[in-house]
């Protein structure tokens, strides 16, 4: 009689009676099994029986039946004997199965337990006789000493028969590892070799899961197994036997001259235990695909070396009251798509000696595909391809052309003819497409656990950060929209706008030397109302809010990152010692020193050489910043020259709005220059980074990231800084204008202020840049992949389309950006800067960013799932250097918003007028009634006769106003022309200047204090996370204690058995 522990459920095996029914299936959770079947082969059947708990009839799954042995082999499965340690001749025993004795008598006379320790040493368990009770199945068990904190049951899996003549590849190799474990684990392994993935098995295609009826024979099961193996083979995800999954793909050309290096490399790969199979391309016979598979022994050995954390205990979940309200619409529908998130488990570093402590439902799926590919990549990076201390690693072979590509496979097609809600997902790629990359789920939360499981922690962390940033944009966007709507609703009640619209008698001075006419102030009525939308009483509040928001965003992201790092086993993860870059090694191979960490000699770069290279690199950075300033200077000249051209345009619409036309075209030209310079900056940054000769890849990435961010940040924001803080500030006054190169008069602000120019600059740049980036991220790969498919169809026709396997389909996809996630992060960081740095001037920036990011998440998801090869599942515990850049932008945003409110907007001049010069002066009020007369007080008077000769005024205004104009007004605080000191600054100017400086100082100190207070009050780790971490640490200690206790008890028993006794033994 046998019992099999199948994923946590203990089913007592059944002795066949005449009616072929199970007598009494009984569950014994937590009982350690010692399965024995003297002289019998193994057969798996399913029968119905009465459940003793409720009396109902239900199928008896996972039952192992004893069958009389054949003369040729006794309990033999493809020459693999499971009778280790059994030294009794069963055929001559007192119980003969073929002599007509009942199965009960046989079971009562002969029972045998086989148990092995976690260290692999076989252990003989004495035979015990137990009484058999009629009508009940015989129970054979021994009490197990197990700590209460450790699991005693596993989730059930469905078992299938394995043909004795067809043992999968990873069962044939080193089978002694299987004998050295409990037999229940051995059967789990044999049955699970060809089982589908148990990760989210309820979401996978139901055709992958088989259920055997009462009348199904073993031949039918074997036939379905063979059909499934054939189906797996034709999918292109397995070896030619349809059983060994493809964990990694290498691609090379037969015409490549690096044949010898490749042969040595592949021979060493096989020596490491990896399985290998080659197959030529269907579309190009010169291309060879090398398929790699890691068997269980290799995975277990390297998982222990790499400290891969695996689940060992289910975390206790506290049930919460769901309430009677409907489900949140943004949540993923777990009833239709169940088990989207991984179960909460405590994890510990994997150990083969403590393997029985881990939750292993299926050894084929215990390590998910991302972990398997990462382990294989880890092996490939350490395999030699040539004699020499540094002639190792796959990266060097790709660099020298030995291999063209290396990548893990996608898990099949992302499309299916059947609906996922009715038939389930075909694979995890299909699942990700349906619940993440498809546009119909744009409002749903991201399934981050599945993203992490499929693409790895580094990519999963990027999408987690992007989702968190997008979620945090909601309060910022709603607040900015509220500020904008506040300006809309108060537009008609604004006293300043009313005075501008009613000022038909105020004549403004021309805005340029030539062609610009005199104009009434009332002509700026529309601009005054539009300016009020962005420059109103709520602007200061919004500036403070966004400065605090940036701090809250970063602080709460640290908490969110800590939770993700814990859930994804990244808390204690430390990046391995990186390899030296081949370029660094080739440059400095003659000088070596001892690595203080590894203790091995490595190439060494002298300090003087490093400093000289850094100086040259810094000079290059300074030169490129000067190029950016030169581009801004060119834009300034364009604005100065074209404002006169548009003022003389033949179309009245453009002529009357010459300044708006100048600003709009200047912004578009500036955008084109930005995009062209970005291409140049990438090449220069690459050149300077390689010139520095960084030692490792991470140093190279950090250096390149800093240069690219600095270049693009300056390139994107330089013109915005000019408009915000310099436009109209240093132009001089009528009659004494400051001129550029002593020729062109500098551009002035509109009579309603310069804020409208800043808003146009930010709005156009944000919309155009984000639209262009989205097109380049998605449109370019789609066009490239379409062209590749079209070329293949023209060369080989459509008849071979169905025969193209998965590895060739993936090879025809676009590889991931060589800089990894750099471009994705850079785009979002620059957007974050636009959203925070000048947000006081453009409150709608967070709303535009939110709308873009909702699209961006799905665009990036669609790109990763459908258009790119599957990237290597890399690990990372945070977003790296980008977090420091975000903190720097947050500090800069406080300073810039303080200057925008104080200098660019009219908030401070209005405040000074209301409290000092207006009708409410000295009353402590600043309402709209206190702003009466503000427009007249903010404009100075100029005598037209004092204009410079070089101004070349075309008209004196008599044809419009009926008589020549004697006086005109301009924005400034200066004395009238007939004063004792004509055109000198008035006292109001100095009051406004002092108020602006005081506001900047108070604003910065107040906001920085609030930011620091928030950073101090918000802990980096949530309290519940600290408790969970303590709990996990305690359980790991208990597991290690129990393993040590088992080892000591085993040694003590062996000593007693050998007749040795020791005093003061522990325990």
From TrEMBL:
Residues 1031-1058 form a coiled coil. GO terms for cellular component: plasma membrane. Its main location: membrane. Residues 215-227 have a biased composition (Basic and acidic residues). It comes from the Eukaryota. GO terms for molecular function: intracellularly calcium-gated chloride channel activity; protein dimerization activity. Residues 238-448 form the Anoctamin dimerisation domain. InterPro entries: Anoct_dimer (IPR032394), Anoctamin (IPR007632), Anoctamin_TM (IPR049452). The keyword Membrane applies. It is found in: Cell membrane; Membrane. Keywords: Cell membrane, Coiled coil, Glycoprotein, Membrane, Transmembrane, Transmembrane helix. The chain crosses the membrane at residues 462-489, 538-557, 614-630, 660-681, 709-728, 828-851, 879-903. It is a multi-pass membrane protein. Residues 198-227 are annotated as: Disordered. Residues 451-1032 form the Anoctamin transmembrane domain. PANTHER family: ANOCTAMIN, ANOCTAMIN-4. Belongs to the anoctamin family. This is Anoctamin. The lineage of its organism: Eukaryota, Metazoa, Chordata, Craniata, Vertebrata.
């Amino acid at each position: 009689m046998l019992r099999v522990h199948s994923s946590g459920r203990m089913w007592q095996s059944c002795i066949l009676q005449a009616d072929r029914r199970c007598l009494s299936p009984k569950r014994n959770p937590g009982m350690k099994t010692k399965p024995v079947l003297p002289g019998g082969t193994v057969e798996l059947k399913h029968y119905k029986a009465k459940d003793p708990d409720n009396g109902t009839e239900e199928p008896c799954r996972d039952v192992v039946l004893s069958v009389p042995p054949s003369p040729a082999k006794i309990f033999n499965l493809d020459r693999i004997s499971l009778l280790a340690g059994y030294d009794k001749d069963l055929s001559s025993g007192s119980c003969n199965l073929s002599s007509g004795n009942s199965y009960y008598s046989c079971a009562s006379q002969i029972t045998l337990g086989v148990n092995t320790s976690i260290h692999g040493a076989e252990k003989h368990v004495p035979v015990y006789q137990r009484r058999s009770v009629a009508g009940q199945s015989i129970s054979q068990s021994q009490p197990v000493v197990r700590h209460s904190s450790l699991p005693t049951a596993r989730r059930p899996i469905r078992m299938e028969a394995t043909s004795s003549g067809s043992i999968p590849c990873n069962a044939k190799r080193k089978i002694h590892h299987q004998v050295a474990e409990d037999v229940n684990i051995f059967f789990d392994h044999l049955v699970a070799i060809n089982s589908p993935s148990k990760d989210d098995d309820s979401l996978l295609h139901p055709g992958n899961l088989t259920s055997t009826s009462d009348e199904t024979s073993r031949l039918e099961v074997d036939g379905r197994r063979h059909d499934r193996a054939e189906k797996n083979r034709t999918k292109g995800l397995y070896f030619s036997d349809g059983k060994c999954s493809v964990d990694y793909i290498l691609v090379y050309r037969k015409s490549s001259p690096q044949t010898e290096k490749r042969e040595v490399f592949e021979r060493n790969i096989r020596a490491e235990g990896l399985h290998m199979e080659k197959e030529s391309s269907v579309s190009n016979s010169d291309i060879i695909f090398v398929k790699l598979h890691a068997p269980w022994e290799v995975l277990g050995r390297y998982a222990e070396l790499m400290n891969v954390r695996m689940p060992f205990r289910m975390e206790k979940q506290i049930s919460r009251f769901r309430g009677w309200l409907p489900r949140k619409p943004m949540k993923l529908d777990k009833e239709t798509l169940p088990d989207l998130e991984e179960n909460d488990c405590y994890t510990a570093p994997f150990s083969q000696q403590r393997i029985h402590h881990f939750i292993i439902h299926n050894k084929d799926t215990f390590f998910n595909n991302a972990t398997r590919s990462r382990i294989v990549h880890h092996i490939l990076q350490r395999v030699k391809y040539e004699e020499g201390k540094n002639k190792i690693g796959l990266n060097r072979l790709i660099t020298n052309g030995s291999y063209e590509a290396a990548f893990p496979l996608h898990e099949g097609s992302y499309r299916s003819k059947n609906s996922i809600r009715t038939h389930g997902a075909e694979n995890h790629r299909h699942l990700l497409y349906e619940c993440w990359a498809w546009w119909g789920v744009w409002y749903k939360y991201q399934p981050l656990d599945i993203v992490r499981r499929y693409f790895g922690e580094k990519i999963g962390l990027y999408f987690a950060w992007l989702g968190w940033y997008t979620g945090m944009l909601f309060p910022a966007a709603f607040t900015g929209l509220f500020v904008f709507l506040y300006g809309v609703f108060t537009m008609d009640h604004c006293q300043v706008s009313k005075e501008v619209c009613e000022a038909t008698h105020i004549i403004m001075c021309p805005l340029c030397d030539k062609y610009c006419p005199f104009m009434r102030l009332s002509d700026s009525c529309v601009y005054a109302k539009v300016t009020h939308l962005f420059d109103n009483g709520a602007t200061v509040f919004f500036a403070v809010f966004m400065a605090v928001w940036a701090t809250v965003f970063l602080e709460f992201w640290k908490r969110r990152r800590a939770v993700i790092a814990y859930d994804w086993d990244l808390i204690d993860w430390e990046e391995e010692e990186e390899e030296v870059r081949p370029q660094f090694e080739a440059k400095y191979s003659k000088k070596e020193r001892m690595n203080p960490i590894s203790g091995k000699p490595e190439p060494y770069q002298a300090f003087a050489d490093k400093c000289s290279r850094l100086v040259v690199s810094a000079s290059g950075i300074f030169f490129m910043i000067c190029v950016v300033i030169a581009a801004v200077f060119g834009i300034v000249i364009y604005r100065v020259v074209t404002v006169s051209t548009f003022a003389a345009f033949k179309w009245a619409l453009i002529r009357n709005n010459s300044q708006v036309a100048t600003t709009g075209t200047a912004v578009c030209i500036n955008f084109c220059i930005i995009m062209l310079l970005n291409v140049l900056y990438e090449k220069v940054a690459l050149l300077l980074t390689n010139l520095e000769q960084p030692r490792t890849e991470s140093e190279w990435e950090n250096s390149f990231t800093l240069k690219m961010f600095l270049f693009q940040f300056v390139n994107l924001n330089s013109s915005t800084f000019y408009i915000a803080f310099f436009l109209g500030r240093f132009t001089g006054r009528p009659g004494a204008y400051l001129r550029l190169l002593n020729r062109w008069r500098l551009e002035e602000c509109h009579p309603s202020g310069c804020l409208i120019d800043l808003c146009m600059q930010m709005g156009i740049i944000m919309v155009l840049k984000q639209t262009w980036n989205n097109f380049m991220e998605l449109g370019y790969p789609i066009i490239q992949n379409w062209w590749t498919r079209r070329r293949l169809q023209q060369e080989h026709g459509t008849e071979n389309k169905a025969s193209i396997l998965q590895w060739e389909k993936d090879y025809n996809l676009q590889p991931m950006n060589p800089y990894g996630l750099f471009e994705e992060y850079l785009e979002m960081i620059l957007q974050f800067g636009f959203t925070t740095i000048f947000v006081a001037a453009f409150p709608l920036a967070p709303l535009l960013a939110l709308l873009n990011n909702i699209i961006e998440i799905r665009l990036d998801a669609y790109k990763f799932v459908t258009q790119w090869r599957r990237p290597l599942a890399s690990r990372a515990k945070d977003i790296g250097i980008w977090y420091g850049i975000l903190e720097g932008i947050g500090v800069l945003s406080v300073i810039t918003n303080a200057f925008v409110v104080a200098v660019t907007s009219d908030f401070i001049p209005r405040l000074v007028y209301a409290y000092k010069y207006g009708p409410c002066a000295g009353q402590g009020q600043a309402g709209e009634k206190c702003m009466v007369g503000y427009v007249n007080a903010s404009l100075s008077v100029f005598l037209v006769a004092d204009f410079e000769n070089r101004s070349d005024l075309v008209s004196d205004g008599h044809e419009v106003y009926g008589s020549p104009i004697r006086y005109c007004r301009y924005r400034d605080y200066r004395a009238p022309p007939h004063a004792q000191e004509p055109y000198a600054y008035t006292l109001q100017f100095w009051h406004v200047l002092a108020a602006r400086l005081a506001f900047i100082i108070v604003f910065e100190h107040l906001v920085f204090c609030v930011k620091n207070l928030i950073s101090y009050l918000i802990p980096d780790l949530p309290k519940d996370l600290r408790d969970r971490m303590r709990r996990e640490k305690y359980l790991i200690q208990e597991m290690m204690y129990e393993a040590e206790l088992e080892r000591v008890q085993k040694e003590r028993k062996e000593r007693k058995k050998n007749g040795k006794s020791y005093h003061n033994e522990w325990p």
